[in-house]
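ESCALATION

Customer reports they have been waiting on this structure for their group meeting. Please prioritize. Original submission:
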Amino acid sequence: MDDFNSVSFMTANNEANTPPLITPHQMKLLRAVTAMAWADGQLEPGEEELLVESLAALFTHLPQESLKVQLRQFIQQNIPLEETVPKIEALEDKKLLVQLSYLVARSSRRTENEPWINKEESEAYQKVLRYTHLPPQVINQLEIEAEKVADTLDRDHGEGMKKLVRGILAFFEEE
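Update from on-call: job pushed to the front of the queue and completed.
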């Protein structure tokens, strides 16, 4: 893979596109969140489409079709947390990553009989916490804030990825 911050996306014709339309800073955070979403080893086609559409909505000032192609290719990359999370260095970005990762883990429930956070995403979330090196009291407060966001979202079966995307949108809007 190319340098982490300057990935060259390929078109259907395998020709290199222009550099990513989102900034390296935004890409770092989105890579880490995407890695968290892949932690349970699955990203359903419907989840992918919902992420692409919702993430594109964050960047309405960019050419949408090109952006959607790049986001689709970007989301399909299953990059390990160990490669993405340590690249998040700024304190505020680490806090945002913890909250978004909490929402990702919290959205893993697929049936009413499953726990809100599955084993794989719970383990991945613990890795995120270790890599951020945030104090436990800060993590606790961030989780409380993320839970408030989660509580305002629809908890019906099949709504997990919608919950995640709404949470991402809410946190990006606060920046």
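Sent to customer with the following note: The chain has a mean pLDDT of 76.
Escalation resolved.
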